[in-house]
UniProtKB/TrEMBL annotation:
<dbReference type="Pfam" id="PF13426">
    <property type="entry name" value="PAS_9"/>
</dbReference>
<dbReference type="InterPro" id="IPR000014">
    <property type="entry name" value="PAS"/>
</dbReference>
<keyword id="KW-0472">Membrane</keyword>
<feature type="domain" description="PAC">
    <location>
        <begin position="145"/>
        <end position="199"/>
    </location>
</feature>
<dbReference type="InterPro" id="IPR000700">
    <property type="entry name" value="PAS-assoc_C"/>
</dbReference>
<dbReference type="InterPro" id="IPR035965">
    <property type="entry name" value="PAS-like_dom_sf"/>
</dbReference>
<feature type="transmembrane region" description="Helical">
    <location>
        <begin position="12"/>
        <end position="31"/>
    </location>
</feature>
<dbReference type="Pfam" id="PF00512">
    <property type="entry name" value="HisKA"/>
</dbReference>
<feature type="transmembrane region" description="Helical">
    <location>
        <begin position="43"/>
        <end position="62"/>
    </location>
</feature>
<keyword id="KW-1133">Transmembrane helix</keyword>
<dbReference type="InterPro" id="IPR003661">
    <property type="entry name" value="HisK_dim/P_dom"/>
</dbReference>
<protein>
    <recommendedName>
        <fullName>histidine kinase</fullName>
        <ecNumber>2.7.13.3</ecNumber>
    </recommendedName>
</protein>
<keyword id="KW-0812">Transmembrane</keyword>
<dbReference type="InterPro" id="IPR036097">
    <property type="entry name" value="HisK_dim/P_sf"/>
</dbReference>
<feature type="domain" description="PAS">
    <location>
        <begin position="73"/>
        <end position="144"/>
    </location>
</feature>
Length: 266
């Protein structure tokens, strides 16, 4: 059930009751030395003062309440973001880190204090970081544009890992740039699996190319021997050709078995 805040109406009511109960005595004391004509305006003056005072009071209370709600929402959002598995990095317009979540600390090894005031390049970039992607990212940030990409980042101990990131500019209500929000995923495992698949594909292509050449030898022999056998009339020559034909068939069968075993292993 949603909690309701009655603080502002309660303050307004209390101030109103106090004014009603004490205003007659207060105004009578202030106007006792004035002429009766001035005293006749006491009721009107009381209403005017009440409207002015309560108007300013309401403005102050509402403004203060809005600030309190905004701070509470900001705190709740920070608590939610801090529990996310994604790495969250907030930076100022100059790119200096102003906040990181718990996942960033766990994956990179850098504490909040170590990250504050640093840039992504200071903490995360290294020898294998793709400078072409970094340059595209820098251009997008200078133009206050969204950018998405993949980079090799480095944890505190120097361990490299793949990161898929989305970085967006943050604007205030006036449209001014407040900073940048980066949401990153550690895709190290999936990237390693992708590299393994590519390597396996290359090996399979090499095996396939080799086998396609190897298998042609016995097939060509079988075709040639078959042609000779069909033309040969001498029985002894036919027997000799059949012997060679059988050996070529055995060689073909052996190569097929080798291909099947190699494909199964790969």
């Amino acid at each position: 059930m949603k909690t309701r805040n009655y603080r502002i109406p309660i303050i307004y009511i209390v101030v109103g009751v106090l004014w009603i109960t004490s205003s007659d005595y207060l105004l009578a004391s202030l106007t006792s030395n004035f002429s009766p004509r001035v005293s006749n305006f006491t009721a009107s003056l009381k209403g005017i003062v009440y409207i002015m005072a309560t108007g300013f009071l309401l403005h102050y209370l509402i403004k203060k309440e809005r600030v309190r709600i905004a701070e509470a929402d900001k705190k709740r959002m920070a608590e939610i973001v801090d529990k996310m598995n994604n790495l969250i990095i907030m930076s100022d317009p100059s790119g200096n880190i102003t906040w990181v979540n718990r996942a960033f600390v766990n994956i990179t090894g850098y504490t909040m204090q170590e990250a504050l005031g640093k840039t992504h390049a200071d903490l995360l970039y290294g020898p294998k970081t793709d400078l072409e992607i970094v340059n595209k990212l820098t251009t997008a940030l200078e133009n206050k544009e969204f950018f998405s990409g993949q980079l090799i980042n480095y944890a505190k101990g120097g361990k490299a890992y793949w990161s898929q990131f989305n970085i967006s500019p943050m604007f205030n209500v006036e449209g001014g740039l407040e900073g940048f929000l980066s949401v990153e995923n550690n895709i190290d495992d999936s990237k390693h699996r992708e590299d393994l698949i590519v390597q396996q594909h290359r090996k399979l292509k090499a095996v396939s190319w080799f086998n396609s050449h190897e298998i042609r030898k016995p097939v060509a022999s079988i075709l040639a021997l078959s042609e000779l056998l069909m033309e040969e009339k001498n029985a002894m020559e036919q027997q000799e050709l059949i012997k060679y034909l059988r050996q070529s068939a055995i060689n073909l069968d052996l190569i097929i078995h080798q291909i099947n075993e190699a494909a199964a292993v790969k």
